[in-house]
Design brief:
alpha/beta; two-stranded antiparallel ribbon; 8 helices; 11 strands; binds 3-hydroxy-5-(hydroxymethyl)-2-methylisonicotinaldehyde
């Protein structure tokens, strides 16, 4: 008899933005369809993301998050993985730190959400950058984009194109902070690439993108983590994630308002383990 195995639990500490297809709104469906069990811990509830849809309605989740972590710990729950993303301030970094210390054996993955396109987000202060840099030091894997990689390394962020060796060197330099690194959104000539540092080094030049959308970093992170939790090596997981993001962008009709994110929903069945050979 085949004994059923409980799906792995992933604690997802990210914002919940109602409109705009980013953060928990993409992470939860992706992880579920990949056969995993995401547990959402919204750091902040927003009516939309903050990327150009006006001033969102906002509900801070710091106190809720502290109480939810205590509740999960009292229940004796275990998490296979903790995945952190958008942290709206230093109190929310403390939430991630608390989760890391309560579940010391979980695989800890930090997406150090701080900026994009060569600039830190307006709400991101030097003190917050330092706290997030410190959080990265307790992670097993970090997933910065190109801008965040430079902020973590205390380099002035630029969006200039890179050669492959420089992309690889950036990922290698970040292993001073965390043992495994994937840098996303690297401008590699006519490609957007990602580079991995640590035990599983690689440079992938996968995406030939004509448009950029909010939330594709979260989509990428969710597929990568889902793939890792399914037992794939980091470079294979990064490859799967790049391919899915590329497909989702191609699936979004030209002329759509990019602020509303990529049309990934109809592609979700491709991520389902049972549907893989269809
Ligand atoms: O990773 C995209 C994202 C997530 N969360 C919030 C955002 C954005 C992009 O703008 O504003 C709150």
């Amino acid at each position: 008899m085949i004994r059923p195995v409980e799906p792995k639990k992933i604690l997802c500490i990210h914002d919940l933005s109602g409109v705009g297809r980013c953060s928990l709104a993409v992470i939860l469906p992706v992880l579920s369809v990949m056969g995993l069990q995401p547990v959402a811990l919204p750091t902040v509830v927003l009516s939309t993301h903050t990327g150009g849809l006006g001033e969102p309605a906002r509900l801070d989740g710091s106190l809720y998050g502290e109480a939810a972590l205590d509740h999960y710990h009292a229940l004796g729950l275990d998490f296979d993985c903790i995945y952190t993303g958008y942290l709206g301030g230093e109190a929310q970094v403390a939430l991630a730190e608390k989760a890391f210390s309560l579940w010391g054996n979980a695989h800890k993955i930090v997406d150090p959400v701080m900026g994009d396109n060569g600039r830190a987000y307006s709400s991101v202060t030097p003190a917050l950058i330092q706290r997030i840099r410190d959080l990265c030091r307790s992670a097993d894997l970090i997933l910065p984009n190109y801008t965040e990689a430079q902020l973590l390394l205390e380099r002035a962020p630029v969006s200039d194109p890179l050669e492959d060796p420089a992309a690889q060197a950036l990922a290698d330099d970040l292993t001073a902070l965390a043992p495994n690194v994937v840098v996303t959104g690297l401008p590699l000539g006519k490609y957007i690439g990602c580079a991995g540092g640590g035990r599983d080094r690689f440079v992938l030049k996968k995406l030939h993108l004509d448009r950029s959308f909010p939330g594709t970093g979260d989509l990428y992170g969710a597929v990568l983590i889902g793939s890792l939790m399914q037992g794939n090596a980091l470079s294979a997981a990064a490859d799967n994630a790049a391919e899915f993001v590329s497909l989702a962008i191609q699936n979004t009709p030209a002329g759509q308002d990019t602020r509303f994110g990529v049309w990934f929903e109809s592609l979700l069945p491709r991520l389902c383990p049972a549907a893989r050979d269809d």
